[in-house]
Amino acid sequence: MSALDLSPAPGSAPLWRQVRTQAVMEAKLMMRNGEQVGVAIFVPLLALVVGVAGADKAGLDFDHTTIDVLTPGVLALGLMSTAFTALAIATGFERRYGLIKRLGASPLPRHGLLMGKMLALVSVQVLQVVVICSVALAMGWNPPSAQGALWGLTVGLLGSAAFASWALLLAGTVRAEATLAISNLVYLLLMAGGGVLVPVANYGVVSNFLLWFPSGALGEGLRTALLDGQQASFSVLVLAVWAVIGAMLASRYFKWE
Q1: Where is the ABC-2 type transporter transmembrane domain (predicted)?
Q2: Where are the alpha helices (DSSP H) in the chain?
């Protein structure tokens, strides 16, 4: 019979376990928030169903079937809503209630907190993509080739990084109420006129200008990859620039208290 070991083992848990626990908690909080679920899941699905049903009445003429054209745009809208609007609102109110300040007294380092937020964000986006693609397939969407899917994954990750960095910059520099108002306003403006849902060619004289916006680059990049199965090099470059600039500004001006 071995001797019972009652010696203490002080110390924090390994970083990966702290990050995993933080990510699980962040994901649960996001999915329990009805407003965030509505913005992340129901609004994109509504845009897909209404868009397919009303494209002809709206006078939209595409080179491919309506469902094939709208599905990449709806995926872009979903990624944008989670990476920007939902993340900005959640982080803004965490600052207001002092949650981030209290986490500073825990063993979880700042980079661990950000890693947890990113993992939670990716988890919710995976759920988004599964739900949107399942509904699109049921409506007759032709899935992309393997090469197109790989380019779509690259564009989606870079787009999420770009919008997430600007969401943290917004949430870390202004009050929570202002973050709520600004993020919702930006979301509505980009959804209506940012080149997300439909090809930028439908926006007339400002079409080339929209390609330099993160919303236009994300939407057009996903259409290039998932609809045509081609490389989306220009969109990748634009989104990478937005992500780097947003990350630099967020790391410089984000206020933790």
Answers
A1: 18-213
A2: 15-32, 34-37, 43-54, 66-80, 87-96, 99-103, 110-138, 146-171, 176-193, 207-210, 214-226, 233-253
